[in-house]
Amino acid sequence: MGKDLSQYIRNEAFLDKIVSAEEAASWIEDGMNLGMSGFTLFGEPKEFPLALSKRGETEKFKVNLYTGASLGPTADQSMAEAGIVNLRVPYQGNATMRGKINAGEMYYIDQHLSHVAEEVRKGTLGKIDYAIIEAAAITEDGYIIPTGSVGNSPIFVEKAENVIIELNTTAPSAYEGIHDIYVLADQGDRREIPLYKSGERIGEIGIKVDPAKVRGIVLSEQPDIPSPLFEPNEETQQIANNLLDFFAKEVEAGKLPPSLAPLQSGVGSVANAVLNGMKTSQFKDIEVYSEVLQDGVFDLIDAGVVKFASATAFSLSKKRVDSLAEDLEKYKDKIVFRPQEISNHPELIRRLGVISFNTALEVDIYGNVNSTHVSGTKVMNGIGGSGDFARNARITIFVTPSLAKNGAISAIVPFVSHVDHTEHDVDVIVTEQGYADLRGLPPVKRAEKLIEIAHPTYRPQLLAYFEEAKEKVGGQTPHILEKAFSFHNNLKEKGTMLFEENQVKN
Ligand code: COA
């Protein structure tokens, strides 16, 4: 490799621990629990999981894989392809892994991201046999400097019997100083988390590790893994405009200041369009208190729209990955990465008064949201942090195009086929048709608003269901249980949710 390792491994106790990825992978036994760094493809080890997957081609073993959130091609994908994952926790977003989960070839627990560390503390996921953590450096006083995510790495390192560090010598040195590692005490011995503004620092710059636990250091030169770039299209742009219109009305009504409130945005196409739309908006000096920072955040800082951004990980496109080293130098004092139990902590989300917006797959006429399961059965990605924010935010917003699959699916349905966020947690729904502000409304009034933002082709049959339910059944939340899934059944039988009588005949 020819690099002077002493600039990366600055504590002598670690220098003699370098091993090959193959050797580190050979330590893993059937049934072990691995706590791996990584979140939305950033900060994950790459050489180690590739070597472990290679071993899986000739040996029969399975591990339980716990992470921060989704991993990329070198970890989730290669490990799923090799068939070496028994159980995956708490989030994935990889097509190969999704296929294996839905085919019943591996198990998956789709868990609130802020809950994972507590589950590790409580031991419900078993002991962590190995923590495998990507690092940019090991400091003089023995701290692991993470790379582009923190996720659950601190708790994995604290609780693991053994630690493997994957030292990435291509990671920008400016990662050092960007993290704020605050470790919670056990429940019962815990005080409030002393964070009162999203820009404050309350912890340390790295993860403290006992050198005696570090069994090996694997060297890597594999660059960060980019996510797809989501360019806004007409539909996502319209959803973004509607959401920005909602924010503008809140400011006009004096309910929010022009700096809004600390903002959490989900990942994907709509979130990116909203961030994009904010560049030319009236909003200024916004604080971001989120889980993931996407490309748009750098532009928003430049435009003076965002003044500080706190999260647990990057999720960046190729263009931003390529310029990350310079960007980190430039934006270092405006960005902080925290453990995911801090970025997503209910206490902090509620205290800071975060406005949260995430994407729904489907929403029902009373405001229950499904973010994870297609037709109630097949998991897409997972709940991620959306539940942490939805339950605790000042304003909880879900966005979705009103149609999916070329109009065969309506995102507004009589009853969601899976519930991630209940009607009690959801304030505003935004589609390209408009926004429905559900706050302060009883269920029957919410239904009227939600049907208005459904796609016009589906409004008549939603209205018909709602009117019939009110008339024949009534009650606080009227439903005709035999027909509650009529849209989904029609989709299954006829390939579309649109009933025959509502289809336009040629
Ligand atoms: N039924 C079936 N499929 C649906 C659907 C529905 N009601 N609504 C959308 N889809 C499909 C789309 O057609 C698309 O399929 P494709 O990949 O085959 O083209 C896929 O779901 C993704 O939809 P898309 O419109 O591209 O949205 P997205 O990339 O913004 O992702 C979620 C949407 C909901 C899958 C994604 O945001 C997610 O996983 N959210 C949960 C976790 C979360 O919110 N994390 C952030 C917390 S900080």
Report on this structure.
The chain is α/β, with parallel strands linked by helices and 506 residues long. It is built from 18 helices and 27 strands. Strands 1, 2, 3, 4, 5, 6, 7, 8, 9 and 10 form a ten-stranded mixed sheet that branches. The protein has a five-stranded mixed sheet with strand order 11-17-22-26-27, with helices on both faces. It has a three-stranded parallel sheet with strand order 12-14-16. Helix 4 links the parallel strand 3 and strand 4. Helix 8 packs across helix 9 (269-278). It is globular. It binds coenzyme A. Coenzyme A (COA) binds at residues 266-270, 291-292, 358-359, 361-362, 371, 374, 380-381, 383-386, 401, 404-405, 409, 411.
Distance between the termini: 67 Å
Total count of strands: 27
Tell me the radius of gyration: 23 Å
Distinct ligands: coenzyme A
Helix share bin: 25-40%
Mean pLDDT, to the nearest integer, reads 96
Portion of residues in beta strands equals: 15-25%
Major β-sheet, in short?
A: 10 strands, mixed
Structural class: alpha/beta
Poorly predicted parts: none
The tally of helices reads 18
- Characterize the overall form: globular
